[in-house]
Design a protein that fits this description.
The complex is a heterodimer. By secondary structure, chain A is of the alpha+beta class. Chain A folds into 3 domains: about 10-40 and about 55-90; about 95-210, Immunoglobulin-like; about 220-310, Immunoglobulin-like. Helix content of chain A is about 40%, strand content about 20%. Chain A has a 5-stranded mixed beta sheet with strand order 3-2-1-5-8. In chain A, a hairpin with a 7-residue loop joins strand 6 (about 145-150) and strand 7 (about 155-160). Classes of the chains: A alpha+beta, B mainly alpha.
Chain lengths: ~300, ~190
């Protein structure tokens, strides 16, 4: 099978799958063989009541045995499912807490901490430490979404007004693809959540970098870009830590240049695509809540210069 | 073919055309225009020397954008979202008012037509209403203005929403009685 579980939870699901799949293949084959034999066997010509009675008893015993066998198989399946379900629902006391909020059509990712100053707000990327459980609290701001990272765990819906949870314990560093798995509107297909599993040290380094406010712009163009950002339409929806921009309607852009994609997977994250996005977002993600900001070409260039410095 | 059949043919054609026209006008209600139709307003306004603001008597001219945005269910719905996203609720609540005046009654200090509401959002008004010129793209201002019109039952019934934002126990905006806007004399 081509499944490649990379977390304890996905491993548990894979075990249930393997435990059910191969016996089911064997049982299905046996049923087909029995059916084929029943179709092809020759009906006894002579009307010998004694032989028929003997056969009847013979078949009754066989059928009883088959029923008992099926009952045993189903009991084993239930037991396997029960045991693996415990693993899916197990919660480690030292788990990392992350809150993921689904929005049309992007993901807000918050790393929770008892100390509010150490909390991190990111968007459209999820970093996880290897070898440690992460409890992902799932909320929705608008409609029902569903988070699915196939290699790490099964799907879990994000329901407005309700808190759901997904736990993942990835075992080795790697890159995975999370997506929205519940049709949530026009740009449902552009609602990607790239997942990076890091070693514990690399994760700590990344999280510390995310905690830092945005670096001060150095070049004159970037400084002008920041001014345009703070005084123009950008500031109505976006936040950049360390500046006066503090809205939470759109994605937090404090470290936008370090993210793998733009607009939740709609575009690769580089200077050319960022420029094109700012000139006309609707051309790449029709219906997105990011409007055309109608910035002058020079303003676009400066804002791009500034955003590209936010690593 | 006899002339009688030609008449029936012509009748059928006319009926079909009428039906198509009705059907197509229905599309207009739902048309989703993402790229924007309204040109951005001038980036700066002339220097202001006093607190006096144009009210009813210097109402902006009727703007075709107003009619278009008011008659489109998609734009009204976007306005509903933006009203919350841009924290209009912070002062006007869900239309009932608080720090700012109520938007669901017939009283309008600076006019209740969609053009006047649009102008109030763009220009700002004394005693607290900030100017959103250059902050909110013009299309979105029209969308918010269109939504504000639904709060007092002034948007066409076929575009007003069937639900309600917030927790108010109030009928959906499509079932509100239309309150004819009237301007308060003193501006208070």
């Amino acid at each position: 099978m081509t499944m490649a579980p990379a977390a304890d939870q996905a491993q548990a699901i894979a075990r249930v799958w393997q435990a059910m799949f191969w016996p089911n293949v064997a049982i299905y084959a046996a049923v087909l063989v029995a059916l084929g034999w029943a179709l092809w066997r020759r009906r006894d010509q002579e009307d010998d009541r004694g032989t028929q009675d003997r056969q009847e008893r013979h078949w009754s015993r066989a059928l009883l045995g088959w029923t008992a066998f099926i009952a045993v198989v189903l009991t084993v399946y239930t037991a396997v499912s029960f045991v693996q379900d415990r693993r899916l629902m197990a919660r480690a006391p030292d788990a990392l807490r992350v809150r993921v909020t689904g929005k049309q059509w992007w993901w807000q990712v918050e790393y929770l901490d008892a100390d509010p100053s150490r909390q991190v707000v990111a968007a459209n990327e999820l970093h996880l430490p290897a070898g440690r459980m992460t409890r992902i609290e799932l909320l929705s701001d608008d409609v029902i979404h569903s988070l699915w990272i196939p290699e790490l765990n099964g799907k879990q819906d994000l329901i407005p007004g309700r808190r759901t949870e997904l736990a993942v314990t990835p075992r080795a560093p790697g890159h995975f693809r999370g997506e929205c798995a519940e049709f949530c509107g026009l740009q449902h297909a552009h609602m990607l959540l790239p997942v990076t599993v890091d070693s514990p040290q690399a994760f700590a380094t990344w999280l510390d970098a995310q905690r830092a406010p945005a670096p001060e712009p150095v070049s004159a163009a970037a400084q002008r870009g920041r001014h345009v950002f703070e005084s123009g339409p950008c500031v109505m929806c976006h936040a950049i830590a360390g500046t006066t921009a503090g809205s939470n309607t759109g994605p937090d852009l404090t470290h936008v240049a370090s993210r793998p994609t733009l607009a939740a997977g709609a575009l690769p994250n580089d200077r050319a695509h960022l420029t094109a996005w700012l000139v006309n977002p609707q051309a790449f993600k029709p219906g997105t809540n990011m409007p055309n900001p109608h910035l002058a070409p020079q303003d676009v260039a400066d804002v791009v210069e500034y955003l590209e410095s936010l690593r | 073919m006899s002339s009688r059949f030609r008449t029936i043919d012509a009748c059928a054609t006319v009926a079909f055309a009428a039906l198509a026209a009705v059907a197509l006008s229905g599309c207009e209600r739902e048309r989703r225009d993402y790229t924007g139709t309204a040109p951005p307003p001038p980036a700066s306004e002339t220097v202001r020397v006093g607190d006096l603001q144009p009210g009813e008597h210097e109402a902006p001219e009727a703007d075709p954008h107003g009619r278009y945005f008011e008659g489109n269910a998609y734009h009204v719905n976007q306005g509903t979202q933006l009203y919350k996203a841009f924290n209009c609720t912070g002062c006007h609540a869900n239309g009932g008012g608080g720090i700012g005046p109520a938007l669901m009654d017939a009283e309008w200090r600076y006019g209740g037509s969609i053009e006047q509401i649009h102008a109030s959002i763009v220009q700002g008004r004394p005693n607290g209403m900030p100017s959103f010129r250059g902050k909110i793209p013009d299309d979105q201002i029209w969308e918010i203005a269109a939504y504000v019109r639904t709060l007092s039952g002034n948007a066409p019934k076929y575009v007003a929403g069937g639900g309600r934002q917030g927790m108010a126990v109030a009928p959906p905006t499509s079932r509100l009685p239309t309150l004819q806007p009237r301007t308060t004399e003193s501006g208070q």
